[in-house]
Amino acid sequence: MAKPPITIPELVAQFGPTLNRIPANGWNAEAEPDRLVKTHCCFCGQQCGIQLKVKDNRVIGFEPWEEFPFNQGRLCPKGVKRYMQDEHPDRLKAPLVRNEGAGFVPVSWNEALDKVAGEIQRIQQTYGNDAFALLGGASLTNEKAYLMGKFARVAVKTANIDYNGRLCMVSAGTAAKKIFGIDRSANPWSDIPLAKAILVAGANVAECAPITTNYLWQARENGARLIVMDPRMTPIARNADLFIPVRSGGDIGVFNGMLHVILERGWINREFIARHTTGWEQVEEAIRKYTPEYAAKIAGVPASMIVRAAEIWGPAPTSFLLHARGIEHHSKGVQNCMAAINLVVASGRIGREGCGYAMITGQGNGQGGREQGQKCDQLPGGRDIENPEHRNYIAGVWGVPEESIPHKGLSMVPIFEAIHEGKIKGLLAISCNPMVSLPNNAYIREALEKLEFFCQIDFFLSETARYADVVLAGSLMEEDEGTTTNVEGRVIHHRKAVDPPAGARVDWQIICDLASRLGAGDKFQYRSAGDIFEELRVASKGGICDYYGISWERIDREHGVFWPCPSPDHPGTPRLYEGGRFNHPDGKAHFQAVEWTPAAEETDSEYPIILTTGRVVSHYLSGTQTRRIGALVDQYPQPLCEIHPLLAGKLGIAEGDFVKVESRRGSVTVRASVVKTIRPDTVFVPYHWPLERAANNMTVRAIDPVSNIPEYKICAVRVTRVSAPEGPMAELQMEAGGVR
Amino acid sequence: MNGADIMEFFIDHSRCIGCRACMQACEECDTHRGVSMIHLETIMRADSVQTAPQVCMHCEEPICAQVCPADAIKMTAEGVVLSSLKPRCIGCSNCVLACPFGVPKYKAEINQMMKCDMCYDRTSAGKRPMCATVCPSGALTFTTRENIERSRQGMAIREWQFGGETVRTKVNVLVPGNVKKIDVSIQQIGTTGTDEYDVANLLIGD
Question: Which residues of B are less than 8 Å from A81 in CB distance?
Fold first, then answer.
């Protein structure tokens, strides 16, 4: 019975989003904080160091943390205002139970936990263990991500657990594993300023990883030449040496075309290829037809740009590739990434100073969240759930029989498909908000409505939690302790700043309480998050993502430790693949030949315009947190549709007009932002908003066959000028999904 | 502190990404009570994503102070031009009109002019100004001249020509090496040269 118990406007009135604008103790220059807590921002994978000011168990402000080497005090607006999520009027402070017509009613923890455990058992006894699914998130600490994976396999005993990193990092991770054998950025960020050629592919660095901008500009000061590929002229593209306004989905044209020219001009590293790689012949064969002219047709850009890119990348003495969701969010996301990485391997410029590549993780713990076993096909340490040795090792750590560990389950989008098919009847979710973040939003809503039971653990009542039968009031990052792993593979320490408010509980205790009610309490005897980390270390030992030598004390002393770190006396591994040693059994990098294929939905006469979606600098993911912070909402209050004046003119659209952007699946009505900085065949709508402003109303439910990432970056739409939207949803505040 | 250790403020407009971390951090100052003293100009969003941060340039001969009838704008020994003194400011806005950089703003709700004072509370205590600490792109930097000369390609200059008037500022801007001072002549206004940022033109190729 998972439907909102009262209307959406009624829920918004009660639970927000409400804007927090004033610090917890007001603007009070005299009030000295009791202490400064050195911790990290929770609002993206950069995980910048920051100090939170705490007074009387309340977070009252921030102070830059200049000693932390990654960001040296630098912060983006999200980091500056991050503390405003604390002491928030919308904060959930009690478990809530759905009451039809009345809303959500506070109940005791015992009642709530008993109900959740009872429903898990009822559904599993009626329909089988796998009929109950779990969803985790990449904003969870490593400890919580580990706990979710273990909770699924040991307490709930379901195969079906996945996480929202499935919407984020899996294409990059799969490609990196196929070519190098490890799913991690290959280099620390300190290598970026040492590179003489930098290729940024599908990464709006200025808005989605702002701190990385300084690294790029520092490389430029050192003489690097910068290539940026993006359908929009982003702030870093404006000052790039070469901006390639690639058609969304046309990236392989650029990569293969570049490699074609590089091969032709004799810039590939034959010696490196012979000694350290396999599969080059297949790549050489595949790229033969990618002449600049052929490649340009796929990429939708002039052939001369591809040649110039090759001329920058090919002969460079050092180089660095950075890629992100722009090439990854495709039904060929893995292929896109592999084509990009082929450029790195063919140059031989990896595993040494100033030479390498990185995927820019998006979510707070985008890296660590995908290593600890909350993926449907994975066990802790980045282990494979179908590998008997891996299963045996983890069974030993958990003290369970190997055969009791479920096998590979469904990933995130197929979980929702299985709900539609009636195969999954119950769901427990934490740290994710599918009602904003999953494609084809109407389909997701229908799935939630079909569930017999849905429980969400959250600190605010997110758009998805509105559909829950039980909402358990969990914890914010600064209310608990633990580790995350940043974009570089550096394991860092989030210190606890304050206690959760009375009535809320830290997430890991909630999970352990549920495990206990499901009869697995003896496997979840943790006294602290530190206890979980100690078990995680052991569980990761010998795995690819080996944390065994890392301790919280070491992290504090060394400003983070890079995995793999197999023993306490190991220095950690900031740079992978030194000496051309890769992580496949043969020690070599495995080239992957890539052929371009069309998107799941290309434009046609009915839907003639490409829609691409993404982020803005002042919001994080589905906006559950940032749409509650006044200063961040003021900066970008509602989604706009970026449209080129040539296209706008053809459609009779002027700056500020309301436009309906409509795909076969749904639409949004938003204001137009008429700008010359986007391709004339493409419109852009950022995705942080819900309801009739949700860009994911339009996106297509097509996933990469290997990584299962959805195709957020291209679908077909039409755009029409419309009158001002009316009705209860339009009238909501902008942060709630209204429009002005 | 010898000359080499003197910390200076540098602006590199080419680095700015318009993220507004500077403004968000500036307004966090308890004395500003949620109001930013730094301004970020979006130059012409329809044509370009270019943005430009504007802190107080701290003129050597601050015209804002010179035109103040109440002598409310003071300069420190280090050359920092402070915000108006509350007991003196009469809210006349002479300074707002006179500043060639558009920095001082009159706040009607408190009947007082407020402006950037280079975080004097922080800089006088050995800390960096808030905006130049958080700026993620290095567009705003507070460091030594030696460090800038070592790490940046641009030339740091602090001389401006407004028609017949030469203005020297404490704050530096980074410009290409052949520029000695910035000539802000009236003829330049309105010529934006924005076509190079039109993606449609880029797609035509050569």
Answer: 24
From B50, B151, B199, residue closest to A678, measured CB to CB:
B199
Inter-chain touch A77–B197, beta carbons under 8 Å: no
Which H or E element spans position A677? none
Chain B partners within 8 Å of A206 (Cβ): 17-19, 137
Q: Is A69 exposed, middle or buried (0-12, 13-18, 19+ CB in 10 A)?
A: middle
CA distance A601 to A623: 27
State the ipTM, two decimals.
0.96
Three-state SS across A488-549? CCEEEEECCCCCCCCCCCCHHHHHHHHHHHHHHHHHCCCCCHHHHHHHHHHHHCCCCCCCCC
pLDDT tens digit sequence for A141-179: 999 999 999 999 999 999 999 999 999 999 999 999 999
What is the C-alpha to C-alpha distance for residues A290 and A601, in angstroms, rounded to an integer? 23
- Is residue A374 in a domain? no
Domain membership of residue A645 as a residue range = 609-736
Tokens coding A53? 């000011």
Cβ pair A214, A617 in contact under 8 A: no
* Structure tokens belonging to residue B158: 């602090």
Q: Which residues of B touch A230 (CB under 8 A)?
A: none
Q: Which residues contact A676 (CB under 8 A, 6 or more apart)?
A: A644, A645, B46, B47, B48, B194, B197, B198, B199, B200
Q: Which residue in B has a C-alpha nearest to residue A243's C-alpha?
A: B202
Cβ pair B203:A646 closer than 8 A? no
User: Residue A61 corresponds to which tokens in the numbers above?
Assistant: 């402000």
Asked whether the beta carbons of residue A64 and residue B134 sit closer than 8 angstroms, the reply is yes
Beta-strand pair A277-278/A589-590: parallel
Mutant choice from A44, A677, A682 vs B, greatest count of B C-beta within 10 A: A677
| Tally of domains in chain A | 4
Q: What is the CATH number of the domain that holds A64?
A: 2.20.25.90
- Thinking of the domain B1-55+121-206, which architecture would CATH place it in? 2-Layer Sandwich (3.30)
The continuous run of DSSP H or E covering A555 comes out as helix A552-558
Helix (H, G, I), strand (E, B) or coil at B152: coil
A511-556, pLDDT tens digit by residue? 999 999 999 999 999 999 999 999 999 999 999 999 999 999 999 9
Nearest by CB to residue A677, choosing from B30, B128, B199, is: B199
Domain at B61-115: CATH code: 3.30.70.20
- Of A212, A203, A192, nearest to A243 (Cα)? A203
Which of A28, A235, A617 has the CB atom closest to B30's CB atom?
A: A28
